[in-house]
Amino acid sequence: MTTETTSQLVIAILGLVAATVPAVRIGRRRSQRAEQLRRDLELLRLIPETSPSRQLFADDIERRLASLVRSEIVGRRDRDGLVGSAVFIGVGAGFGALGIFNDGLWRLFLIPAIVLLVAGLAILPMYLRKVPRDTKGNAIEGSPSPGLMNEQPADDVPAELERSS
Prior knowledge:
Layout: H1 3-46, H2 52-74, H3 79-101, H4 110-128, H5 159-164
Helix pairs in contact: 1-2, 1-3, 3-4
């Protein structure tokens, strides 16, 4: 393998890593919001009932809690499935690069490249849909169709959250 081909593969791998970093940050941000709410609830318990700032603080916590619940009800994507699809596409692209940039029997790498690329692209839309998930990320059975998530609110959504959407 030439230095040029090696550098192209390294750049492709680094690009794939750079594309997945924002998804990891989003998941971390969600858990940080929940942890901040827990800390604020503890602080609210320490503020005296007669304090004028207590009600303002309680209203702020209620607003952030409703926002967090609303974002959880809307649904989330399957991160593991997206990573798996990206791996299929990345390995297929790597095999394709090996087959394209080399002569002889290296061309046989185009066969698994095509299979992996087609498989990765075929399963990608399945994991891009947002579906309601529990706290562990598993899809909730019996939830509304993913295509209808933004059109029909779930039955268990409180009326206050429906009005604020």
